[in-house]
């Protein structure tokens, strides 16, 4: 197999041709389970020729393709307005981490919908967030629903807790988001709710679930009657995704495994050995923005791969890169706050197209800040 071809730029005549090469190489990194695709890919690139560094690079290029160029950022709000649903008196850090991460990835505005008691606390962490103290109100669903037309994606679950009243409200919010066709990232106790009532997201293709190992087992048990732990992780994640009607599932772990029911992709970007609480919130908040961008860009920009699969890969790679950079500076003292400080440089490093390779092409991966 020849060396990986020059990276396409988003704008430019060669993009389509180079894009085809990218998908061919990317596909070699995917574990494929559908006979028609297998046939196509075996013709293009036999699986055994795949090299993992090249594969990661090809997948990262698809993420670059969906990052909106600076020129498109003239109107405030175009880069995305994200809502985080979560935050109760016990947990105020998680919704803050998710919402600030969304802003630092490039969202124009981040809203948090938390309980009344938690709102002032979350606001006090940052003047940059808009915090609505509505989640435990009797009119919570309507209060959030009226904001939905102004939002592009929701992240549901950070710091939610398991209070029955809150979960019932979140169920209503999820239903309202589905009715509007909004992308929804579900994490933490949002996943606990989904494990209780899988029908809530069954077949909703704009949902992305981001379980850790325990949450994954709980979901698999609820949906398939089998915790699916041990054995082939790619196959397990793919099975859960299919059983949920091809909802995108990201299983976080030593490597992150992502599936949309058709393909399973592994993100092995080097991270750190540190496992501080809050990393998952960085991932879910980033993913809210990337999911919006990827759906806006559409499958042409992701060379036929599912936009949400590409977005999820991007969020995993970014989170791991942040962990790595923060760890290089702080070692075992690394916390999520240190990782969040690395979002800007990590994002540039991974996703901003540099002028170097093709010569004279202006950087187009800038963010709207
Ligand atoms: C999910 O994707 C697989 C692979 O493409 C396909 O065979 C299956 O029919 C899809 N399921 C649904 C519910 O769309």
Describe it.
InterPro entries: CARKD, Ribokinase-like. The protein is of the alpha/beta class and 369 residues long. It is built from 14 helices and 10 strands. It has a 10-stranded mixed sheet with strand order 1-10-9-8-7-6-5-2-3-4, sandwiched between helices. Bound molecules: 2-acetamido-2-deoxy-beta-D-glucopyranose (NAG). 2-acetamido-2-deoxy-beta-D-glucopyranose binds next to loops.
- What name goes with the CATH superfamily? Ribokinase
Structural class: alpha/beta
Order of helices and strands, N to C? Answer: HEHHEHEHEHEHEHEHHEEEHHHH
The assigned CATH architecture is: 3-Layer(aba) Sandwich
Short summary:
With 369 residues, the chain is an alpha/beta fold. It has one domain: Ribokinase (UDP-N-acetylmuramoyl-L-alanine:D-glutamate ligase, 3-Layer(aba) Sandwich). Helices cover 47% and strands 11% of the residues.
Task: Give the secondary structure arrangement, pairings included.
Blueprint: H1 15-29, E1 31-32, H2 35-44, H3 52-66, E2 81-85, H4 93-105, E3 109-114, H5 116-125, E4 130-133, H6 140-145, E5 153-156, H7 164-179, E6 184-186, H8 188-196, E7 207-209, H9 213-224, H10 233-243, E8 248-251, E9 256-259, E10 263-267, H11 279-297, H12 307-330, H13 336-341, H14 343-351
Parallel strand pairs: 2-3, 2-5, 3-4, 5-6, 6-7, 7-8
Antiparallel strand pairs: 1-10, 8-9, 9-10
The structure holds 2-acetamido-2-deoxy-beta-D-glucopyranose.
2-acetamido-2-deoxy-beta-D-glucopyranose (NAG) is lined by residues 34, 242, 245-246, 261-262.
């Amino acid at each position: 197999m020849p060396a990986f071809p020059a990276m396409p730029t988003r704008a430019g005549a060669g993009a389509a041709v180079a894009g085809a090469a990218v998908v061919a190489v990317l596909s070699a990194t995917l574990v494929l389970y559908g006979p028609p695709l297998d046939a196509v890919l075996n013709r293009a690139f036999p699986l055994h020729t795949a090299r993992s560094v090249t594969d990661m690079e090809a997948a990262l290029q698809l993420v670059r393709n969906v990052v909106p160029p600076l020129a498109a950022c003239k109107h405030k709000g175009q880069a995305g307005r994200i809502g985080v649903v979560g935050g109760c008196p016990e947990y105020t850090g998680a919704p803050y981490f998710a919402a600030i991460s969304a802003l630092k990835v490039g969202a124009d505005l981040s809203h948090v919908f938390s309980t009344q008691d938690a709102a002032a606390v979350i606001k006090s962490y940052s003047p940059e967030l808009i915090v609505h103290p509505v989640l435990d109100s009797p009119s919570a669903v309507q209060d959030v629903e009226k904001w939905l037309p102004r939002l592009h994606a929701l992240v549901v679950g950070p710091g939610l807790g398991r209070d029955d009243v809150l979960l019932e409200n979140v169920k209503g919010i999820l239903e309202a988001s589905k009715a509007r066709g909004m992308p929804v990232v579900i994490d933490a106790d949002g996943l606990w709710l989904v494990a209780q009532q899988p029908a809530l997201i069954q077949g909703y293709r704009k949902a992305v679930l981001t379980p850790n190992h325990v949450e994954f087992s709980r979901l698999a048990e609820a949906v398939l009657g089998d915790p699916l732990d041990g054995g082939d992780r790619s196959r397990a994640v793919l099975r859960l995704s299919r059983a949920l009607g091809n909802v995108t599932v990201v299983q976080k772990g030593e490597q992150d495994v992502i599936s949309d029911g058709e393909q399973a992709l592994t993100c092995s970007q080097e991270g750190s050995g540190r496992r501080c609480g809050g990393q998952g919130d960085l991932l879910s908040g980033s993913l809210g923005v990337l999911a919006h961008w990827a759906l806006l860009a559409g499958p042409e920009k992701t060379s036929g791969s599912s936009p949400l699969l590409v977005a999820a890969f991007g969020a995993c790679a970014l989170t791991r890169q942040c962990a790595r950079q923060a760890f290089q500076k702080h070692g075992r003292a690394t916390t999520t706050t240190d990782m969040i400080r690395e979002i800007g440089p990590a994002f540039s490093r991974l996703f901003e197209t540099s002028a170097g390779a093709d010569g004279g092409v202006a950087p187009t991966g800038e963010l709207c800040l």
